[in-house]
Amino acid sequence: MSRTQYLLVKKKSNIHVYFRYATEHRCGVVVKGPKLSGNISGTDPLKDNRLLLQANPLDDTDEAKHTAAVVNELSKEISRILLAHPLNAKRAAEGKNVANLVLLRGCGIRIEVAPFEKIHGLWPCMVAPTKIIAGLGLSLGIDILEAPGATGDYRTLLTSKATAIARALSAPLQSCPNVFVPGEDEHKPGRLDGYDFGFLHIKAIDDAGHDKASVFKVKGLEAVDCAIGQLARLLWEAESTGKFSYYLCITGDHSTPVEYGDHSFEPVPFALCSLKDFVSALGGESVLSGISLDPFPLPSVQAGEDVDTATRIEEDKNNKLQFFAGDLVDKFNEIAAARGCLGRFPGSEMMGIIKAYLKLEA
């Protein structure tokens, strides 16, 4: 099966539908035609053991009503095609569940927005195998870096993500990774002069929250901690040449508690510092250089195994953590962060805070 599938819903209505595989069980669906609206509800009930929903218009416009009708017809056509697929016949013969529908949600229309570089004056790049994050980046003109082994799920290689970001931010000292060509299964060279802003997204921790996998979430966060150490070492090697100066910002885009198993819209911790202060707080270059750059897999979800100790950032219990700027919060969690000097703020203020810290024009 090709990565992009095409379906003509109705010739007389001139509606064209395109499917493109994303990650895991997800795909992107594009509906093209006249008089369409993004203002409709989805068919996904969002919880197991519930009936498939009908798409409904969210306003009284003819476009919304028409689009809802198209999506409902599309949903039926998808089910008809899937049920007739030979793979489903094989699964049914083996006593397995069949894939009999596609849950359609998050309908929207692509809008024109100012590029990230024009808004903030920084050339941006990102590593984001999760397609919805990559799509947001592409909408803002952010280059999506190639990172072999980065999958956007439990199998992802965090070291590959860290390496891709470090190379992009240290070009031309290092060769910049290739970037994805939107809508194609191809790559093109990244910016020869590199990038000023790198965004590294990790999905597996959110998946652990949805799966209520508490042990894996803890072990997964420890793995992320190791990947941050690897990223810091790679960036420090570039900064030590005197040609670069880096800053680290660590946060989450939303909360997914394991007890709830879904997004809870609670505040998330936010940390921002210079790489120089980060290295000093760790104990200096000798500690940082001891961090292994070998790739490591995420711990097994079932076993909840530990991360390889060679990759860990070791804490020297004889030395009290030193503080170089900001506040006295010494732990990265929701409770400790509540005492931070930044207080609570909406995500819309984040770039302003980052640029103020970097002494860039707002």
Essential attributes:
single chain; 362 residues; Alkaline Phosphatase, subunit A; three-stranded antiparallel β-sheet; three-stranded parallel β-sheet; 11 helices; 10 strands
> What do we call the CATH topology of the largest domain?
Alkaline Phosphatase, subunit A
Termini Cα gap: 48 Å
CATH C-level category of the largest domain: Alpha Beta
Mean pLDDT: 88
Helix and strand pattern: EEEHHHEHEHEEEHHEEHHHH
Structural class: alpha/beta
Please name the CATH architecture of the largest domain.
Answer: 3-Layer(aba) Sandwich
For the secondary structure, the number of strands is 10
- Our count of domains comes out at 2
> How are strands sequenced across the largest beta sheet?
1-2-3
Oligomer: single chain
